[in-house]
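Need residues for this backbone.
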């Protein structure tokens, strides 16, 4: 898929390695190894108590993996130890990261073979809610449980009573055995809406139960780790504001009302007050396939934290480099999305060959960007360091797609650049819709740009953007 790209990057890595070796002292052997993050098999109670446990793959054997927390500006170091039977890697989703640490096999690193290690070390420029997940055969590895939350704390955190990180996963389990259905890459999933599960969990639990007090102020950090499911969530007995999207604080927090939609890989930080009374139960509800709202997390309310609700919270402190200047005059690149079931794609280029749709389908490749299936050596766009770039995304398919850009956050361009949406790393583009994003290409390297419906990414919806070094 990416022969030349990986060779180029490999060479540059070697060159940098040689320069660094000249300039830096050789680390002494006594230096402590970074803390391990072990990718391995494990067991989890995904279904309600009383049903069998599910065999999963997880970081440190858990799904979700350990919650990682660090202060803004700190450096995070983890040694990935691969005890899985297959190669893997870790992507730190939403972190404006050093390219070599981005975890994309074939683009930024070689896959970490079974029994091998990879040392990740990178700075955390932004506070917010992020997550990490496997980025090798993601459509299988994330579905098996290889993901976890990564929280970066503000230097000056908001005034709350407590926070809860709620990471939602979507599992496709065999109804008899409660084991993960191993039909990864099933053609129907690839060509339709992606791999949908039949059980949505929060922090790995089918029915997460919590306790809270009336008028308590909670920060809820919501993360959608599902393979393909667009979550519709709503609050019952909780009232508050959307404070941040995809880690980045909103200048003007929004009322958290109605259905809160979270596409795969998106995050939402809420600050909510418990308005349910003593003895009642507050809920985070999720709309199921049956169109009904079901309790996803339940908080039993006992007592009260104070006699009154607190005043409206201040916005979260801004992160650095939030501005996207010069959008009106920026260069625009088009990304036409085609393919999938019931689509109009007749033919596209795959591995250098022009193939008819049915020949692509036989190879499990159902989608194309600008007439090309999957990532090739040529990036979608090459940007100068610091350039503002616009990408017009035309969804000429009958499915929604959650487009994720690695390495840099973007803003949604409205009214031809007269107004800009919030800074995000993933945008949901509905069927038939055209959207435009703009970002400052301020992070050098090769950055993946793909659909986060992970079966789509594996079936053609992956490209990349190159940001030059200087
Ligand atoms: Cu969260 Cu390339 O992905
Ligand atoms: Cu998609």
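Answer:
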């Amino acid at each position: 898929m990416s022969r030349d790209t990986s060779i180029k990057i490999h060479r540059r890595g070697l060159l940098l390695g040689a320069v660094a070796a000249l300039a830096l002292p050789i680390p002494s052997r006594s230096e402590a190894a970074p803390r391990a993050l072990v990718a391995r098999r494990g067991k989890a109670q995904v279904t309600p108590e009383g049903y069998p446990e599910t065999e999963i793959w997880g970081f440190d054997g858990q799904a979700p993996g350990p919650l990682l927390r660090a202060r803004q500006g700190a450096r995070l170091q983890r040694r990935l130890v691969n005890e899985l039977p297959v190669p893997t890697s870790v992507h730190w989703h939403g972190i404006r990261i050093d390219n070599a640490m981005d975890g994309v096999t074939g683009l930024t690193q070689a896959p970490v073979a079974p029994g091998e290690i990879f040392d990740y070390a990178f700075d955390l420029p932004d506070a917010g809610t992020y997550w990490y997940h496997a980025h090798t055969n993601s459509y299988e590895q994330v579905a098996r449980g290889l993901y976890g939350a990564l929280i970066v704390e503000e230097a000056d955190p908001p005034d709350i009573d407590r926070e809860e990180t709620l990471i939602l996963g979507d599992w496709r389990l065999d109804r008899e055995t409660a084991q993960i259905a191993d039909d990864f890459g099933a053609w129907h999933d690839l060509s339709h809406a992606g791999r949908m599960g039949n059980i949505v969990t929060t922090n790995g639990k089918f029915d997460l139960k919590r306790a809270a007090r009336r008028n308590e102020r909670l920060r809820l950090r919501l993360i959608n780790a599902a393979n393909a499911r667009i979550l519709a969530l709503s609050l019952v007995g909780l009232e508050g504001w959307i404070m941040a999207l995809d880690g980045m604080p909103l200048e003007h927090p929004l009322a958290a009302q109605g259905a809160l939609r979270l596409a795969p890989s998106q995050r939402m930080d809420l600050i909510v007050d418990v308005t349910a009374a003593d003895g009642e139960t507050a809920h985070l509800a999720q709309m199921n396939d049956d169109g009904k709202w079901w309790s996803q997390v339940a908080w039993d309310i006992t007592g009260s934290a104070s006699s009154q609700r607190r005043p409206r919270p201040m916005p979260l402190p801004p992160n650095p480099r939030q501005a996207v200047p010069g959008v009106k005059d920026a260069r625009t690149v088009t990304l036409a999305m085609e393919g999938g079931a019931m689509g109009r794609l007749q033919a596209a280029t795959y591995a250098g060959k022009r193939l008819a749709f049915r020949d692509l389908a036989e190879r499990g490749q159902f989608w194309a960007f600008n007439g090309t299936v999957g990532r090739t050596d040529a990036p979608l766009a090459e940007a100068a360091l610091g350039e503002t770039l616009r990408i017009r995304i035309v969804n000429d398919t009958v499915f929604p797609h959650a487009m994720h850009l690695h390495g840099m956050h973007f803003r949604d361009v409205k009214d031809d650049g007269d107004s800009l949406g919030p800074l995000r790393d993933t945008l949901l583009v509905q069927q038939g819709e055209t959207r435009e994003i703009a970002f400052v290409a301020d992070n050098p390297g090769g950055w993946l740009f793909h659909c986060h419906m992970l079966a789509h990414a594996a079936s053609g919806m992956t490209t990349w953007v190159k940001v030059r070094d200087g």
